[in-house]
Amino acid sequence: MAKVLMLLPNEDFDPTEAGVPWHVLKAAGHAVFFATGDGTQAKCDQITLNGTGLAGMMKTLAAKPQNADIYRRMEADDNFQNPMAWADVKASEFDGLVLPGGHAPGMKPYLESEDVFAICRNFFERAAPVASVCHGVLALAWAKGADGRSLLYGYTVTGLNNFQENIAYKMTKKTFGTHYQTYPTSVQDEVSAVLENRGDFKPGPILPAFGSTKHPRKGFTVKHKNLISARWPGDVYKLATEFADMLEG
After folding, report:
1. CA atoms within 13 A on the CB side of 74
2. CA–CA separation, 2 and 31 (whole Å)
3. CATH number for the domain including 211?
4. Residue 16: which of 79, 82, 61, 77 has the closest Cα?
5. Do 141 and 217 meet the contact criterion of CB atoms below 8 Å apart?
């Protein structure tokens, strides 16, 4: 059994991108622990969880019912209800790290935290397994190693791509303003800028394949060295399943 650490902001993370890895890893027999900025229980992006105000094509951004149910079960988990604070985490005590993503403004403290960067640095120095999805890859992009370069320098990765991010923002701008635009610069552009080669960011196919409990290996991921990365909720079953394989390998 591996001890896995999941880092979360206090609010606004994507419920599927946190809930599905918790569900898959627990089912595989691993222990999942959580950490937030101040050590209080995290709360996901409620618009994405409940679909409130997401009409027409915007409904595709809401968590699928099965995944929303998984998130609500995670909310009842004792470890989720009693997280550590980022500053108190002893990263060396954990075997794996999960970095969920999300769009909403509450993600920023998590993606910009020096405490989060220090945790990420520890995992990369040990070459311990790390999984990131969507905006979660930004924490790795902005964290620097001992050489002063991004932790992702020399890696091949993916994350929320420009097509996906632009579609989500354009669909929701009139109703929700910048709720689905975390930063003016896209994830793909931010990450690509710190890689050894810009082509080391892999956007994946335009037509998505949405994974599920019945089809857990559908979706797109990139695995390189100790890191496995994915783009959006549709990829997260595949991400979590392959991450469980990494922990057991």
Report:
1. 31
2. 6
3. 3.40.50.880
4. 61
5. no
Tens digit of each residue's pLDDT, the chain (249 residues): 999 999 999 999 999 999 999 999 999 999 999 999 999 999 999 999 999 998 888 898 999 999 999 999 999 999 999 999 999 999 999 999 999 999 999 999 999 999 999 999 999 999 999 999 999 999 999 999 999 999 999 999 999 999 999 999 898 999 989 988 999 999 999 999 999 999 999 999 988 889 999 999 999 999 999 999 999 999 999 999 999 999 987
Q: What is the DSSP letter of 93?
A: G
Query: What are 132's two structure tokens?
Result: 């990131």
Nearest 5°: the CA angle 132, 231, 91 is 5
On whether the CB atoms of residues 62 and 210 are closer than 8 A, the answer is no
Cβ neighbourhood burial of 165 (10 Å; 0-12, 13-18, 19+): buried
Q: Is the dihedral of CA 153, 165, 85, 63 positive or negative?
A: negative
Total tally of structural domains belonging to the chain? 1
DSSP three-state, residue 220 = coil
Q: Locate 3 and state its tokens.
A: 């001890």
Which structural domain, as residue segments, surrounds residue 243? Answer: 3-248
Task: Take residue 18 and report the two structure tokens written for it.
Answer: 């946190």
State both tokens at 162.
């420009």
